[in-house]
Design brief:
Length: 195
């Protein structure tokens, strides 16, 4: 399914939760946050920094805060959707429009905005670039390949390195290596065709 290009298009794909999503949207729109579409979902930003987002899931609609870990959560309504994976993001689930306490939701949003203004945010960890031996050997044997690899962004280099390192069997590593060499020479990322 293609990503929605507007909140209305997103809501129309999630009719069951449309009233709930529209209610959350109206609360968010009453703030100084700017509504944008990111990843096909309504996202609310302050000075281009993601603060909150809304979305529909199988059994609930949710409001999430990108740096919700810093919220006081006095009503104990926020959850970490993916323990040990999600560091800063917190979600608030709603099953019906009656679950929305407008004043409480507004208070959480205002606190999230203030936290963003205060610079409270989780910075992503910088993972070191570890080039597996098979890829090192290929780069050492071809100056053209090595030069093309060096011109790639760090994230592209990491994608290629992880792609080779994740293969368990030597045969698989070699197949992957042969597949990515032309891509590296073209100076494209491993996943560029999906972007």
């Amino acid at each position: 399914m293609k990503m929605a290009k507007s909140p209305d298009e997103y809501f129309s794909r999630n009719e069951e939760y449309r009233p709930l999503l529209e209610k959350l949207q109206s609360i968010l729109q009453s703030t100084e946050l700017e509504e944008k579409m990111k990843w096909g979902i309504p996202t609310y930003c302050w000075k281009n920094k993601n603060v909150a987002g809304i979305g529909a899931f199988k059994s609930y609609a949710g409001l999430w805060f990108f740096n919700g870990v810093f919220l006081k959560d006095s009503a104990n309504v926020l959850i970490n959707a993916q323990e040990r994976k999600t560091k800063g993001m917190r979600q608030w689930h709603f099953e019906s429009i009656d679950d929305i306490d407008e004043q409480l939701v507004s208070a959480y949003i205002k606190e999230a905005i203030q936290n963003q203004k205060d610079g409270k945010e989780i910075k992503p960890e910088k993972k070191p670039l570890i080039i597996p031996d098979d890829l090192k050997e290929a780069l050492a044997s071809s100056s053209q390949l090595a030069e093309a690899f060096e011109s790639l962004s760090l994230s592209c280099k990491r994608e290629y390195a992880e792609h080779i390192a994740e293969a368990k069997r030597p045969e698989t590593k070699q197949k992957r290596l042969e597949k990515i060499k032309p891509m590296i020479l073209e100076k494209v990322g491993l996943y560029d065709k999906y972007k």
